[in-house]
Sequence to fold (286 residues):
Amino acid sequence: MVGLTQTAQRAFITRFAPSPTGPLHLGHAYSAILAHDMARAAQGRFLLRMEDTDTERSKYAYEAQILDDLSWLGLTWDGPVHRQSEHIADYTARLEPLAARGLLYPCSCTRSDIRAALAAPQEGTIHPHYPGTCRGRPMASRQPGDALRLDLAAALALAPDLSFTETGAAHAGQHRIDPAAATTRIGDVVLSRKGEDIVAYFLASALDDADHGVTHVIRGEDLFDFTPVQVILQHLLGLPTPTYQHHRLIRDETGKRLAKRDDARALSKYRAEGATPQDIRRMVGL
Fold:
């Protein structure tokens, strides 16, 4: 199995982390099965967490369907399901050391733009580069509704030589984070928003991976370009950097990446039509 390059002394721990904002589709099935099978082949651990910080769109009914679909696929996970919505206060509290080091600043820019920046990136969706309108504002000026942004240039000045290991076929190798490219392409990302109990995907995911001992992050290649953000946060917060494997995406007949709005490819639909778990494996090439 590709990616099983850990030493015998290092446990293999990975996770599947869906957002309960819609039904699982074939792309989710591929990612979950791949991570599960790699963990089991390595006699490691496979964890399950719900990235449900989007409280407006996350629904218990979707979570229940996700758990049922994963069980139907024959996948088992180790330990209880981790729900990010239950740990918002923990995530935001861990930003305090960054604020004390002058690496964060409050931002009062457009609410819709900030909410979009908090979500996980999607293929074909470009997070606009923030022009730095609020950069330089002191933390003491923060008001309810303000977001917290990471001053990326200041952060990179403290971490000039960062890198991560990628084992996915499309990007395999060691990747050094270029400060100039990161500043230009990523910019000052939003990490949280005061008064709304929401935190950014980048932050919550990085903290959870470290807290749960994740050694290998297995996810879609649409997230590859945003990995530097998490590596930077890991360094600033004193967290280990896991090995990454960004896998191919499952696409429709036109080459478009499947999304949760693609109900025609929801696992529940295939199940209702009589498909078996082995049929799903064949459909996604496993």
Confidence is low (pLDDT under 50) at residues 1-9.
